[in-house]
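re: ur question from earlier - yeah i can do the single chain one, its not a big deal. heres the input i used so u can compare w yours
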Amino acid sequence: MVTTLAKRDFRNEPSFDEVLARYPRFPRLIGLKIDVKRRGVHYTRRAEAAVDPALHQLRSPYIFGSRDGVIAPLPESLLLRDGTSILVDPTPLEQDPYTVDVVDGRFVLLDDGEILEEVDLWPKPAYYDKKTSSGLPMSHIVGARPQRLNVFQSSYCQFWADDKGCRFCDIVPHTRQQRRELGVPDRRRPEDVRETIAEAIKEPGRFTSLCLTAGSVVKGEEVFDLEVDYYVELLQAIGEVFSSRRFPSQLLSSAFNEKQLIRLHEQTGLSSYTSDIEVLNEERFNWICPGKAKWVGYREWKNRLVRAVDIFGRGNVGTGIVGGVELATPHGFTSEDDALAATLEEAESLAERGVTTVSIVWVPRPGSDFHAQVAPSLDYYIRLCQGLQDLRTRYGLSVDFDDYRRCGNHPDSDLARA
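and the output i got, formated as tokens:
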């Protein structure tokens, strides 16, 4: 396990309130969400003691690891008073995170000892206490977001096989850690997934969609054919749970070619498709995502997203970026202004052709190549998030499958609520 951690003295930056004062129209709680995700959180002993495993949703097996590199029974998310979710990593104190404590019986978020907001924890889904007929905990098979079920079909990515994994990613080290410490299977069996989803949707009004994702599988007659096989099998099993041909679903996968996309659309009930390009700049993409560059390439990745619009429909195709990673050293942008301009220009070229772009806040993780780096400023993320939302508004694109109710991981899509 990598032990060198990213460090940043946030006290030398403008304060949260100073940054937000520059953007009076930007929602304060969404700005807070960004900054908490950027810096992470530390749970005090009082906060940990107040977490009730019978009531609160704890961190379930996830496709990526934690900022502290530890698997621990801590809250999955914080919930702000406007319904905003913060999917945030427990973070070592030496990295200067925000603090979650308990004051007068309430969970609160603090910075440097000052209470900023009262927060709550997600309620645990009922199915988390049940097992599949094969004996596996259902929480290990399907995870929960605010109103979405997450199926991490596999946590292994074959780009890592020849040392070409994305440099910000820790998917393979975390897979090995979960298998070793929790006994989580490398690949989810369709039967287990079907049983778990059937049980989960018994909870009235809790879930409105589901998302499937996994690492890339390059094997097959054509690149990614075997990955498509896995998803078709899994989606067909899930389809048995629903009475309608199509069901509200998102696939987050590799950039499939047109024939593969048509197969998914015709043979399953899938309703939306996302393929994360990660970095909207060809030069930085080639450096940061060497496996994606080798097997598909930046321009072809974009072309496949555009072709998917003809199959799934405008507004039902998206891509994601790891916001801020384009500023990684030594080959990233050296100016936040240049990085923002380049990213939004490329995002607009996709929006013009019906592809939605959403962002996450880059978290340097211990198991990634970029473990010792730091994310850019809060100011940068506010401008990036507002820019992406402005593009969606300009081009009439929805973000329903990645909105705050279903996903909760994209600060820019939270802005669509306004």
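Residues 16-121 form one domain. not sure if urs matches, ping me
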